[in-house]
Specification:
heterodimer; A: about 0% helix; B: six-stranded mixed beta sheet; five-stranded antiparallel beta sheet; 11 strands; about 60% strand
Chain lengths: ~120, ~110
């Protein structure tokens, strides 16, 4: 059983560049979530999808951030004009509303972004 | 808004029991979770409890929920060095039909000494 995968695992970029991260959820999971975790803190919710529909966005998700899940499977998170404050671990999670287990979220290994 | 609080640090001797505590403010929480995070890694689900339960046991893990006091705890029996990690408590808001986000505490760093 393949878990949630994320690519790349690490990304170093210069301030002002655009970056894109990919998340592949557990197969057949219809919900997909993005969280951001800064050093020493717990993860904070950014956005989530049910199938291809983006149902909720946090106020943390500024205009420079955009997320898509075009076919209801994998998702991408793009950050435009990166700033040093964007440096964080970006975590993806998926869940199923149809399987048992209370719609529990399973997390991927994360993408660590460093903005120089 | 929702708030989840945890103590920052716990030191325990190998073989002893660990108890990690968490308090939350959202009275509409439906599920409460415990995740484990090792350095540089993602979050590993340990266990969860539905809000109408007050206890759940899963091998070495025991979760206690006091809904009146909004207090959640995780007990790890016979703590091993491999249990050294950061443990996060999280709650899920039950009110909004589409609101499925988790709100996390700041994490408790557990250090197991041999």
């Amino acid at each position: 059983d393949t878990g949630v995968s994320q690519d790349p695992r690490h990304k170093i970029t210069k301030r002002g560049q655009n970056v894109t991260f990919r998340c592949d959820p557990i197969s057949e999971h219809n919900r997909l979530y993005w969280y951001r975790q800064t050093l020493g803190q717990g993860p904070e919710f950014l956005t989530y999808f049910q199938n291809e529909a983006q149902l909720e966005k946090s106020r943390l998700l500024s205009d420079r951030f955009s997320a898509e899940r075009p076919k209801g499977s994998f998702s991408t998170l793009e950050i435009q004009r990166t700033e040093q404050g964007d440096s964080a671990m970006y975590l993806c999670a998926s869940s199923s509303t149809t399987a048992g287990g209370g719609d529990t979220q399973y997390f991927g290994p994360g993408t660590r972004l460093t903005v120089l | 808004g929702e708030d989840v609080e945890q103590s920052l640090f716990l030191s325990v001797r190998e073989g002893d029991s660990s108890v990690i505590n968490c308090t939350y403010t959202d009275s509409s929480s439906t599920y409460l979770y415990w995740y484990k995070q090792e350095p540089g890694a993602g979050l590993q689900l340990l266990t969860y409890i539905f809000s109408n339960m007050d206890m759940k046991q899963d091998q070495r893990l025991t979760v206690l929920l006091n809904k009146k006091d909004k207090h959640l705890s995780l007990r790890i029996a016979d703590t091993q060095t491999g249990d050294s990690a950061i443990y996060f408590c999280a709650e899920r808001d039950g009110i909004k039909a589409a609101g499925n986000k988790l709100t996390f505490g700041g994490g408790t760093r557990v250090l197991v000494k041999p």
